[in-house]
Amino acid sequence: MPQPTDAQSPHIISYAKLTTVWLALLALTGLTIWVSRLDMGVNRVWGALAIASLKSGLVIAFFMHMKYEGKLLRWLLFVALLTLAIFIGFTFFDVLYR
């Protein structure tokens, strides 16, 4: 039976690291709830979006193993997320100026 090379071997993340990321996601969820109850006006939405972006970055990096992928796949993900952000921004501007 052939031995897998480094390019074929799975990236095994320790349970301690996954648990740490999970606890960070729980803490950020609690922070999101706390921010939603503050009276900050429109900044409440921006704060919640910033926390959600951080949480999605953690999920993509660790649970989807993007941290261990090559540069091409990382750039493709960045381009896809940038395109999504542009379309969401255009939608906000459309709703804003109606």
Q: Sketch the major β-sheet.
A: none
In sequence order, what are the helices and strands, one letter per element? HHH
Strand content: under 5%
Average pLDDT, rounded to a whole number, is 88
If helices are DSSP runs of H or I spanning 4 or more residues, what is the number of helices? 3
Spatial separation of the terminal alpha carbons: 65 Å
Oligomer: single chain
Helices and strands: which structural class? mainly alpha
How many E strands? Answer: 0
Give the CA-based shape: flat
Round the Cα radius of gyration to an integer and report it: 18 Å
Low-confidence stretches: none
Portion in helices: over 70%
Instruction: Estimate nothing, just give the exact number of structural domains.
Output: 2
Could you walk me through the main structural features you see in this protein, from its secondary elements to its overall organization?
There is one protein chain. The mean pLDDT is 88. This protein has 98 residues and is mostly helical. The longest helix is centred in the C-terminal third of the chain and has 26 residues, at 71-96. It has two domains: 12-64; 69-98. The chain has three helices and no strands. The protein has helices at residues 15-36, 43-63, 71-96. Helix 1 (15-36) packs antiparallel against helix 2 (43-63).
The gist of it:
The chain is an all-alpha fold. The chain has helices at residues 15-36, 43-63, 71-96.
